[in-house]
Design brief:
about 100 residues; alpha+beta; three-stranded antiparallel β-sheet; 9 strands
Length: about 100
C-alpha cells in the first residue's frame, strides 16, 4: 500500500510540474487596478533552442505594483505565446495573464 501511495504522489507531483511548464507563469491570473501600471522594464535574455522568452510584467498587489521577472518557457509546436498585458477599461486597468494560443 505504501508503494502505491508513493507512486501516486510522484505521478501527481510530475503532473503539477508539467502543467506549470506548459501553461506558463500566472496562467489564468487576472488583476484590476485604478492605478496605471509603470512602463515595462527592459530585460536582457539569450535565445535558447526549444524555448521562448516570456517577458516580465507588473502585478498588482491591491496596494502597489510588483515586478515579476521574465522566464523561459518550453516551446510548444503549433502554438504561439500571447504575452501578459495590462489593458485600460474606462478608468480601470485589467491584467490578462500570458497564455498559449493554438
Amino acid at each position: 500500500m505504501k508503494r502505491f501511495q508513493l507512486s501516486l504522489l510522484a505521478a501527481l507531483s510530475f503532473s503539477a510540474v508539467a502543467t506549470v511548464a506548459l501553461t506558463g507563469p500566472c496562467d489564468g491570473a487576472e488583476f484590476t487596478s485604478d492605478v496605471a501600471p509603470p512602463p515595462a522594464r527592459v530585460e536582457r535574455f539569450e535565445p535558447r533552442d526549444g524555448y521562448i522568452w516570456a517577458q516580465g510584467h507588473w502585478e498588482w498587489s491591491g496596494r502597489s505594483y510588483k515586478w515579476v521577472s521574465g522566464t523561459y518557457l518550453m516551446e510548444r509546436r503549433s502554438f504561439h505565446w500571447v504575452p501578459d498585458q495590462w489593458e485600460q477599461e474606462g478608468s480601470r486597468w485589467r491584467y490578462a495573464a500570458g497564455h498559449w494560443e493554438h
